[in-house]
Amino acid sequence: MLGRWLARRGPMRWRKAGVAWISLKAYKAEVKSIFSKLESGLEPMKDMNDGFEIAKEELRMTVTIGAPGSYIFTPDEKKKNIQMFSPISGNVYTYKFDEKSEQWANVNDGHYMIELLTRELMGACSGLPDL
Question: Rounded to two decimals, what is the model's pTM?
Fold first, then answer.
């Protein structure tokens, strides 16, 4: 019965059940993919927002949105996750890649990184991200 309950919990099952979720090779490919998706999907917003900048490094990505500050995306190969600092909420969120949904899901409540980022950018910036 507990197993069925954990299976229905979606992305949260990782933390509760300790299930392996992704190989290192797949993890690296997904980090590269999400960084490219963020860069291309947020690029058009630069022209609509003063101070909007995107800086991509090998091990980190920073999206500055002007006065509120910067989103910082930091991958951790050892833990196979990405941490996102949000200047809007002031929180650091930890995400693991869910192969089933093909999304980066929060380890605590299962929300998707792209959805939170989109919601916050819609409230703080002009234009819509294409994510």
Answer: 0.82
